[in-house]
Amino acid sequence: MSIFGSILSKIFPSAHAADATTTAPAATTLPAPAPADAPAAVAPPPAIPLGDVAAVLDGMPGAKNLNWRTSIVDLMKLLGLDSSLDERKKLAAELSYGEDTSDSAKMNIWLHRQVMTKLAANGGTVPAELRD
User: Fold this and answer.
1) What's the half-sphere exposure (Cβ side, CA atoms, 13 Å) at 62?
2) Would you say residue 72 lies in a domain?
3) Structural domain for 111, as ranges
4) What is the pLDDT at residue 41?
């Protein structure tokens, strides 16, 4: 399971976290135009609402002693995940961080916002100030 998938499943155990970060590969060729009598394309269904991320995290044991709202390290600790620099670098690679991972402070800020944004994209309710 991906690191983000682990984060999602720790917050919402019933979520299908293994598929959370899976995206379709980019097309290398344009599809052929549909015939005029072909049915219109149907948009994919929206993400299933999972619940209030902040409420779930605030309700976890130890949340009061951790600054999970701004710290990716504290968020990972709260969820019982390895928060080491190596694991955060793996998470950065998984989420397509395009900067130098040796600047861990910058990477950590980016990681936290991306995780919150992805939680929202996967059906979680996340306060706007925590997302990108």
Assistant:
1) 9
2) yes
3) 1-16+48-123
4) 59
